[in-house]
């Protein structure tokens, strides 16, 4: 409780300097137990006491990086000064804030579950103790915002318990194979490469496409993924690969561009610095009313393309998550954060909201058969998942499930929209 008081004082002193909703969320998670009518919320990584777990209710475990041990010392004192908030905790708390919105919605709908939240950044000993405890064996569903090592660990735990593990953010198989309990929502790089190739087939199958890339292992992997898919498809794109030095200039690009018409370009790198420089140079080489087109990678979602240096350039990139701000529910969340917390909800807020709401509903509907019903789209809020099995071509066994749904976002002169 001393932690809660410390944070309340922090809110009073430092509210103008930080996101109030993050601090309030941390206050709740620092308490010994917060128990809404239908859901138990267990902070850190200590198992919920047996007397507080209703064996008739299904159990959902949420793992997210809260960094509670970093924010508070052993005596419960806040480690930072009144004007400082640990930014490393923001993403985990934003995901939890979205989960809270889902919990409120589920509660209003009369859905009865026990939901526990655990800090992935607690000590390894605490985590191991939790995951091997008898109390945790009653878990029916694991949802996590995780790193690669954590994804592999939770996938293994899920397999041993024969329950689904929903990896909400890490876009990789994490070395997991032969595990039908592992679900990846943030689509892998190979899925993006295949999706981009198909999108180009649909929109620019007859045109020359210049693939600008830099040297690097990751860039070589992207080229391999594209080449592998190209071998299996009937419609071949006219791709020309160009490897640029780190200090490339506008003149270097001009050697490969047609000055008489818009050029269709593909960026074969996840590097956002490379992306920004490439887009700025291509924008300078565009003509008003006849812009060059650049297709990019999912990492481009981090870049602010509304700035003037990208004027006269059509930018397209793929993403598995898209929240249309004009949607009624999304607009409601945006307005709530604006009026209550004086801030904008991040992608992690929406992802936490939708993931907890969707999969909690499916758990209630299908129970132990949830693993075979992951493709059900009944309870989506903002977008759509297309969860499909990924088959190992060497063994012909199911390695894991993955969200194959990709949206293509077009940004041109400050206007953002999805394109087919």
Structure description:
There is one protein chain. The protein contains 12 helices and 14 strands. By secondary structure, it is an alpha/beta fold. The strands form 2 sheets. It has a 7-stranded mixed sheet with strand order 2-1-3-4-5-12-11, sandwiched between helices. It has a 7-stranded mixed sheet with strand order 7-6-8-9-10-13-14, sandwiched between helices. 40% of the residues are buried. The chain starts with a helix and ends with a strand.
Strand order of the largest sheet: 2-1-3-4-5-12-11
Query: Measured on Cα atoms, how large is the radius of gyration?
Result: 23 Å
Largest sheet: 7 strands, mixed
Number of strands: 14
Q: N-to-C SSE series?
A: HHEHHEHEHEEHEHEHEHEEHHEEEE
The helix content, as a percent range, equals: 25-40%
Give a quick precis of the structure.
It contains twelve helices and 14 strands.
Topology:
Blueprint: H1 2-14, H2 20-30, E1 58-64, H3 68-71, H4 90-108, E2 113-119, H5 124-131, E3 141-144, H6 148-161, E4 165-167, E5 182-184, H7 189-204, E6 208-214, H8 217-232, E7 238-244, H9 250-254, E8 264-267, H10 272-284, E9 292-296, E10 313-319, H11 328-341, H12 347-366, E11 387-391, E12 398-403, E13 407-412, E14 415-419
Helix pairs in contact: 1-2, 2-4, 4-12, 7-8
Key words describing this protein structure:
single chain, 420 residues, alpha/beta, 7-stranded mixed β-sheet, globular, disordered N terminus
């Amino acid at each position: 409780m001393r932690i809660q008081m410390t944070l309340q004082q922090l809110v009073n002193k430092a509210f103008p300097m930080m996101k109030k909703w993050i601090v309030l969320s941390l206050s709740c998670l620092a308490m010994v137990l917060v128990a809404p009518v239908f859901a138990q919320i267990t902070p850190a990584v200590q198992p919920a006491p047996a007397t507080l777990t209703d064996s008739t209710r299904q159990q959902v475990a949420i793992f997210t990086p809260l960094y509670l041990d970093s924010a508070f010392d052993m005596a419960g004192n806040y480690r930072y000064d009144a004007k400082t908030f640990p930014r490393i905790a923001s993403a985990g708390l934003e995901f939890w804030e979205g989960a809270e919105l889902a919990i409120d919605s589920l509660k209003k709908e009369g859905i009865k579950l026990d939901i526990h939240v655990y800090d992935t950044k607690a000590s390894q000993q605490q985590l191991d103790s939790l995951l091997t405890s008898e109390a945790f064996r009653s878990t029916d569903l694991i949802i996590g915002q995780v790193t690669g090592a954590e994804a592999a660990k939770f996938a293994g735990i899920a397999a041993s318990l024969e329950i689904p593990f929903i990896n909400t953010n890490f876009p990789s198989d994490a070395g997991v194979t032969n595990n039908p309990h592992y679900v990846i929502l943030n689509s892998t790089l190979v899925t993006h490469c295949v999706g981009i190739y198909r999108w180009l087939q649909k929109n620019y199958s007859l045109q020359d496409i210049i693939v600008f890339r830099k040297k690097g292992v990751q860039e070589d992997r992207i080229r391999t993924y594209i080449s592998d898919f190209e071998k299996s498809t009937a419609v071949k794109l006219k791709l020309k690969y160009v490897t640029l030095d780190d200090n490339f200039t506008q003149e270097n690009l001009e050697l490969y561009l047609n000055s008489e018409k818009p050029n269709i370009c593909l960026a074969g790198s996840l590097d956002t610095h490379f992306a920004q420089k490439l887009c700025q140079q291509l924008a300078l080489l565009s003509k008003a009313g006849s812009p060059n087109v650049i297709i990019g990678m999912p990492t481009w979602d981090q870049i602010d393309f509304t700035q003037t240096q990208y004027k006269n350039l059509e930018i397209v990139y793929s993403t598995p998550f898209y929240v249309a701000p004009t949607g009624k529910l999304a607009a409601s969340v945006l307005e709530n954060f604006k009026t209550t917390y004086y801030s904008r909800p991040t992608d992690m807020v929406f992802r936490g909201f939708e993931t907890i709401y969707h999969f909690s509903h499916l758990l209630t509907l299908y129970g132990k058969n949830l693993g075979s019903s992951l493709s059900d789209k009944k309870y989506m809020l903002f977008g759509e998942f297309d969860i499909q099995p990924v088959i190992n071509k060497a063994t012909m066994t199911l390695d894991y499930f993955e969200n194959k749904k990709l949206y293509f976002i077009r940004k041109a002169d400050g206007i953002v929209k999805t394109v087919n």
